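Trying the structure run again after the queue cleared.
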Amino acid sequence: MANYTIAVGWSGKDALADSVAGKVISGADFNTEFTAVQTAVNTKADLAGSASQAFSATTASADTNTTQVATTAYVQTEIGAGKNGHGDRTVSTSAASGGSNGDIWYQVAS
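Done. Tokens:
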């Protein structure tokens, strides 16, 4: 994605008096400037986005706790390591005291 930068030195022409021939701008100057604008606009993603516009982010190292984007690869790694924000879980199908058969029981590891 390219940001727009002015391609033609307009300020030099702006400083000239209206009667100076050098103040006149050419079609080539306009073409150069509009091409720069077009390139910058065409390389930006639409705000609404689409399926064809790829978004990519760097996958953070394990245990990263920042405001950066969490990729699915990072989330899957953290879940696979038992880090789901609620502590590790042990799942058992044996009935604990109370409840009924078929319930899934878990114990928060300390």
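The chain has two domains: 1-55, 73-108. Worth checking whether this holds up in the mutant runs.
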